[in-house]
């Protein structure tokens, strides 16, 4: 629509004016906010933008390739993909505590990102001068209010605060005044595919908090395949009354890996394999959430496919806990 097109033109003009002919670095995660920020800044300044995409090895099935296809293949943006999966999995080996895992993933992420950023800023006068972030209006409010209000940390989130100062970079935040819905509309106006722009949120620590306890490559592999089946079927199944898919009718849905073995039977044989839990919630603010009343036919299809297609998983359960007292993620 023309209002959004106007907004794009205005935002592009503002970025050009701010940045001039200087270089910009942006941390691209594949999430909605950083993706829209990248597309917008790329529209404004093209090759003056370099995106750094740190793949911590805890992304969803084919996610890294999809990010590269979109930003490099379609938008022709400059993206440095850092495959840090061995580093992250190495640091996580033997660590089972959820907060310890979050801290490791968060701090390794900052370390890797800083190393890449340092390469881009070191080119003297030609080096990058700006760090772009996909901060949106609710983030601005949250970090302002957090100090006074939040007494207890339930889960430590990725914290990249202070990064611009540490890198000696100026901060570029073109989405600062926008609400999530506006960010999504902007993304569509910039030509990002709706499936990307309307994707469910995904936590910074990724599958690291969806594999309970110690993270192992084998677990991540099984989880990725189970999760992809769940999401594919949520997109396939339409609710007749609304015509919407169950993916669109839920706010967040994913599989969780339980490192517990249970007995099953397949053909003439006995199996002794891992368990996957499915989680799907409906919420408007993610502070409280109801478990989604998915149709049994959908659950049946998903569990049948996971057990048949993902060798190593022989049992699927559905999580019927609301938040509170449960949280949305299991860790
Ligand atoms: P919980 O599990 O606390 O999650 O009910 C609420 C929402 O926050 C997301 N989440 C995270 N997002 N970094 C993120 O960027 C994190 O460390 C993190 N932990 C939870 C979660 O996916 C849900 O949408």
Automatic annotation (TrEMBL):
The entry's keywords: ATP-binding, Glutamine amidotransferase, GMP biosynthesis, Ligase, Nucleotide-binding, Purine biosynthesis
Residues that hold ATP according to the record: 29-35
Keyword flag Lyase: no
Domain GMPS ATP-PPase: 2-199
Catalyzed reactions per annotation: XMP + L-glutamine + ATP + H2O = GMP + L-glutamate + AMP + diphosphate + 2 H(+)
UniProt EC number: 6.3.5.2
GO molecular function ontology, one term from the record: GMP synthase activity
Superkingdom of origin organism: Bacteria
Keyword Nucleotide-binding: yes
Subunit (UniProt): Homodimer.
Name the record gives this protein: GMP synthase [glutamine-hydrolyzing]
Naturally occurring in which organism (per UniProt): Simplicispira hankyongi
Boundaries of the shown chain within the full protein: 207 to 537 of 537
């Amino acid at each position: 629509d023309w209002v959004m097109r106007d907004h794009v033109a205005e935002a592009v003009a503002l970025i050009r004016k701010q940045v001039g002919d200087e270089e910009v670095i942006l941390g691209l995660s594949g999430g909605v906010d950083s993706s829209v920020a990248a597309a917008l800044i790329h529209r404004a300044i093209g090759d003056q933008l370099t995106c750094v995409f740190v793949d911590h090895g805890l992304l969803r099935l084919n996610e890294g390739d999809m990010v590269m296809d979109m930003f490099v293949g379609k938008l022709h943006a400059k993206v440095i993909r850092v495959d840090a999966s061995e580093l992250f999995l190495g640091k996580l080996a033997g660590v089972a505590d959820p907060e310890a895992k979050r801290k490791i993933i968060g701090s390794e992420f900052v370390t890797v990102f800083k190393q890449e950023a340092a390469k881009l800023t070191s080119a003297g006068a030609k080096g990058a001068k700006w760090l772009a972030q996909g901060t949106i209006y609710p983030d601005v409010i949250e970090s302002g209010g957090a100090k006074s209000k939040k007494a207890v940390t339930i889960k430590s989130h990725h914290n990249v605060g202070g990064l611009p100062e540490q890198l000696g970079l100026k901060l570029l935040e073109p989405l600062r005044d926008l609400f999530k819905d506006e960010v999504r509309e902007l993304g569509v106006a910039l030509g990002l595919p709706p499936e990307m722009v309307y994707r469910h949120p995904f936590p910074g620590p990724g599958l690291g908090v969806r594999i309970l306890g110690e993270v192992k490559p084998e677990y991540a592999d099984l989880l990725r395949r189970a999760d992809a089946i769940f999401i594919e079927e949520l997109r396939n199944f339409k609710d007749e009354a609304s015509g919407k898919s169950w993916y669109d009718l839920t706010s967040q849905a994913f599989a969780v890996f339980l490192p517990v073995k249970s007995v099953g039977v397949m053909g003439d044989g006995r199996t002794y394999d891992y368990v996957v839990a499915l989680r799907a919630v409906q919420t408007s603010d993610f502070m409280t959430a109801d478990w989604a009343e998915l149709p049994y036919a959908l659950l049946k299809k998903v569990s049948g496919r996971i057990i048949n297609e993902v060798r190593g998983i022989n049992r699927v359960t559905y999580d019927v806990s609301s938040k509170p007292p449960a949280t949305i993620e299991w860790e």
